[in-house]
Amino acid sequence: MGDTIPALTMTEDAMLQVDETLDIAAPPEAVFAAWDDAAGLAAFLTGVRSVHAETLERMRWRVDIAGIDPVFYAVLLERLPGERLLWTSVDAITHHGLVDLAPLPCGGTRMTVRLAWTPRPLRPDEPVGIDLDELTVRCDLQRLKRRIESAHARDAQAAAPAAA
Fold first, then answer.
1. Alpha-carbon dihedral of residues 91, 78, 114, 142, nearest 10 degrees?
2. Coil, strand or helix at 157
């Protein structure tokens, strides 16, 4: 796994790029599984209606985000289980995502995420959709953290031997 986040190609009019690092009380494999499940992304990403993995490397996104086409395609550029996911929209402009995971000595994970959306100007006749902002994306990532930690705690409790 690299020590730095790779630069993503962005246009100068990029409206939103969020870089966030969170420590999560779950192993890297559990955090990776949450991101690797394309269908589950809509459960925590605001404005994302669905993501369908058409192949191992191509995803169809359906979104309700201002200035983003309601359907676009993304390709997976890098997938290192337990370590990293990197994807970009097919047009290499609309959306980029990166998730870097590093194990912590306590058994948890340091998750570093970069999400970038580049909206185009709205046409007068199109619905507005959700205006994403940095706070919304950061709240989405906090919601994901809570979901992963809750699931991990339940799994750990279920796997623990019953007290005699």
1. 120
2. helix
